[in-house]
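Anyone else keep sequences and structure tokens together like this?

Example one:
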Amino acid sequence: MEILKEYLKSQTDFNPEMLTFVANIDQVAKKSPEVARGIVKELVDQRSNLKLIASENYCSLAVQSAMGNLLTDKYAEGYIGNRFYAGCDNIDEIEALACEEACKLFGSEHAYVQPHSGADANLVAFWAILRKKVQAPILEKLEKTNLLTISKDEWDEVRKAMGNQKLLGMDLFCGGHLTHGYRHNVSGQMFDSYFYYVDKDTGLLDYKNVRQRLHEVKPLIFLVGYSAYTRNLDYALLRQYADEVGAVMMVDMAHFAGLVAGGVLTGKLNPVEYADVVTSTTHKTLRGPRGGLVLCKQEYAEYVDKGCPHVIGGPLPHVMAAKAIAFKEASTAEFKTYAQNVIKNSSTLAEALVKNGIDVQTGGTDNHIVLVSVEALGITGKQAEFALRECGLTLNRNTVPFDSNGPWYTSGLRLGTAGITSLGMCRAQMEEIADIMATVLKSIKPALTKKGTKSKAHYELNEDIKANSIQSVQRILDAFVLYPEIDTRFFGQYFAGLE
């Protein structure tokens, strides 16, 4: 299947991005037409559906290119200048560049770019804190520096102390994250976990409750951050609370890192200025490759850098290269404008949904997330998610605070504007998207089970509304084409049924 030759014959204008894409697909197709078809189908699919998933975005073609090369063939356990494999000189340079760019971008004292994901980044951070605050003092008391030189009884003492520490984080069902102490996650099994909550009436973080919980629990780690909360946090105040009980303040900014990088969250709204350790993903609002990042004060650097062998194995050099490019992109004036527009769009989307009679949690948003409750409409989040997907809007169901439907069916939806803002959409499109969403949501009817009760999963959807919604969505997307450099029509002859 020589796509590249056919493409070159057909071209009169040189398009380097298209040429690269075609060449890559050509190589894949020679080995597996099925995989090549899936890649092109995904591009077609994303051009046919509005991406409203708050944890997704579109990285640049330069970032994508950095991930698709021979750097993936290198093992590089260890850290810069201290590898367990020979031949890592070039990897050292790339990783050092990525760390340098991350420190400049966020104003951090130290950066670690090896984590494969946000979950990995959190594990690296957890264990770095445990080793500095728990393990190191015990070894000092034993007058030992090497774990391999202590006795079995001494090692048991270290393990027991490390595995009996307290963690205080935001409750998952109030907007926290799985890795913040949830029992079904390893974080909830390695720590004695406790939680703080939002106010039941307003949905806003209850700072009084946070302070009270800190004084009750006195945790080693005070974990701040969220995956489904729509307001900014006062990190100066939270730092004060942490200091009152001697807790290490750790912030997971995976969702809003791009807003920090883009200069939207500054002063007391910038966690990097106040936290001891900050973790993040690199692919959400930061618009980089899928991966993780740890930022920290210098006193934690030597512990964070030992993520390998402590938590992760070989880092991914090709992804670290892509991170370096993403950090450079995020330091530009264009990215700052982008971050500002993300906030404007989410605020507009929330306001428009409220005008359409949709229940928006906390009444609006300060960041890229809009959290909607569909409980008053008599449907579940699962029914809403699936019905909206049928109509061309891709998002995820999500619990709302104190959700009676639990984490599977849920009573809510989580929307995000990072991706559609990357496409260039603005106020007019946000208002139209809100209109489409509200029309679909109000038309969903729960299907009846065999017992005659309302189903939490199945539903009925008006076909005319569905057709009109798909048409409206496609009209919007036709005006804001994803990766316009790539012409998918060319691939139709090779992948039947794509268009």
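And example two:
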Amino acid sequence: MLRSLRFQLPALFLLGVVVAGFVSAAIALRLFRSYAQDRSRSQAYTELKKESSGLKQLYGQQAGLKLLSPSRLELATGDRIYYGGLDLFPGQRARFRPLSPKAIDQRLVRRRGLMLFVFQPPDAKTKLLAVARPLFVGKRFWGTIVVAKPETVLAQRWLALIERLLIAFAGGVLVAAAFAWYSSRRITTPVLQLSEAADEVAHGNYDVDVPSGGAGEIGVLSERFREMASRLGEAEELERNFLMTVSHELRTPLTAIRGHVGALREGVVTDDEMRAASLTVIAAEAERLERLVGDVLDLAKLDAHRFTVLQEEVDMERLVDQAYVTFSDEARRRRIDYRREVEANPVIVSDGDRVLQIITNLLSNAFRWTPDGGRVDLALSATDGSVYVSIGDSGPGIAPSERERIFRPFWSRGGGGTGLGLPIARELAAALGGRISLESSAEQGSRFELMLPTRPR
């Protein structure tokens, strides 16, 4: 449960909200408290100044008369009154709260006329804000009168703010928790669906219903997962087709070789001409097997990037002629209009055997899809430091949906062949620093164009 993304996402979100709320509240309270204290102290000192001024005048005038009880004044104002100095009203019971000599320097009060200070008398548990004034009877300095009130009165103002902030904070946490739960559901639901789909793919079921995931990164992930499942399904189908195709391609020449070898060993073939014919068939089928195994090895090397490319001067006109001659007999036999057009005689630095292999694979594909009596043309041109070899045919063309698939290993239109010729040709072209492009239509057939640089890049 605790390791579930559905729990961790809202928990982290809520934790962030709580931490941010505490930090914000602490800063706000600190600022407000400082502001409130300064403002409250200012107001308190203003009130204390007025009270102390009135008391100074009152007791300065009542010296020697009947005393107005300080305790009654404290009860009426809520403040405390302290006095230090000569006795104002000798013989009377009522007395001021005594002012400790340590609380304030009375000489300094007399000199300044007014002092604001904070002190904590022995009879109080908290500090007091105080205003001290000198008391004169006539022109004679008689003592110091102090009016004070507790600081705790100031704290009550911002404590009320703390209560309101806590209520607001609790409400905010509840709203954030609801939003975090909703958001986590929106995020984790498609992720869990993707996880279930991944389990299905892991068990070999590639036709799974992948959730869309909506917009954003989850939607992109869902789309990529759907593409991955589709490609895995295609790869599995290609693998099955490859195994069936390769087994068929291997079995056919092996069957022919086994039959001719058996006839030769058992003495069925006694005529020298028939013996030579059997040996020719065995050699051709062995060459066919070698070519098939070579194609598979070449593709494996290209995929593993362990393919070595030679650097040599290659006469492209001679190489194109060599490839052209290879298919001349087939063209005559099938009455195909087979043409060659050379517009330039470039010499490039590349791997001649591999360039010939690319052109041969493209010609083989063209002859395979060109019907008897059709057309195949081979053209060579050069411009701007690049060489172009194009192979056109009058076949049925390639549908747009299949133009990328034909370059995938083991995929073949119509289920014939190994499906390795075009993939090997494109990978070889890329290894040589070139590329293969395709133009195709149902009316004009297909045209493959090989582009190679004249010098390695």
